[in-house]
Here is the input.
Amino acid sequence: MGWLLPLVVAVFVCNAFAHQIPFFRHGLDSIEEHTRVATAFKLRHVFHHGTGANTTLHRRLDVSEPSAFESTSEFYLSAVSKNVTRLSQRDPDFMESYVAYTRRPGFIKITGFDWIHERIRTPNISDPETLTTMARMTSDAYVGVPQSKDWLDVGAPFNESLGFGWDDKGVRGHIFTDDGNKTVVISIKGTSSTLFDNDGDTVTNDKINDNLLFSCCCARISYMWTTVCDCYEKSYTCSQSCLEDALYAEDKYYRALLDIYRNTTSLYPSATIWLTGHSLGGSMAALLGRTYGVPTVSFEAPPERLAAERLHLPFPPVPANESTIWHVGNTADPIYMGICNGPSSVCWVGGYAMETQCHSGLECVYDTVKDMKWHVSASSHRIKSVIDMIAAYNTTPTCVARTDCQDCFDWTFD
Here is the structure.
């Protein structure tokens, strides 16, 4: 019977896409309706999902006293109404089946997705206060939580029998909701690193995921580097299928985030979901947003388009400027700009193989080098610098899609 489940999944996915509706772009003349609605959000839950040896561990902390965290207890966001194009079927069972299907030997890329057009509420990224608030939410995800007996097991197959700790290897997601639970914001923790003054016990696993997501081939920079997967074949040649399997492995962050999203939507099945994150957390938020067609605002995220393509995530057949994934960053941050590479870079010295240059979605770039005379430095990557940067501007930058970008052009992937 072991053959039955893969067959059912394959039939389920293929049949779902076999009856797609024709693609029409009616009603898209007015893309956005700029009606500000300021809403108070409070931190309600924290999810912590294990990775590495702790992949079966997943816990939830229900927050009754937001003041226990180093952020304020309330956040205020404004929203706009926007026409979007996304998959008609996006529930976790379906999407996880599809992503798993792409891992099967002999997978043939599916192009006939069933897309729908609908008007949804998205973060008002033209409002500096909203961007500042979402940046503060991402900062909150770095904050340590005192050991608490209030941690709850999410349920089978997850358990905490190994004494899973807050700072152990894994992914953290802070869950904010408005008073009516109509909108939920998931803030995903970014990279802990001594380079960015936010060291922690997750630093080793964060670096592994950084090097897997943002390098051309397993962090194979030179023969002296320790690789994070075994996909390198020969000079500038890498196994594509091996890379795809490595990204989707049970002990890596993407799979952990699928579980966090599933459990958040099970708590709030009728809510509108928004995603945010800083650094690695921003890139992971973008991948999750790409998976489910969810509005996402990332801050100083390393370019993640290559990882999205390796995971075969769906890209809507619309002009890139209609995306609901926004990457906010500044020209003084070499990680966001995709130039933190080479032997003289701080990334190289720190053991980070940051080789990608292309973001999916839209880039919202503050020109801090020109406007504020910032020097190009990893210090411009810190979330506190981002919050100060947004506050220093009266307006937000125009968000555009890059068209002059290519990742790993000198590599062959077979």
User: Anything to note?
Assistant: Residues 4-18 form the longest helix (15 residues). The mean pLDDT is 80. Residues 96 and 258 are 8 Å apart (CA to CA).
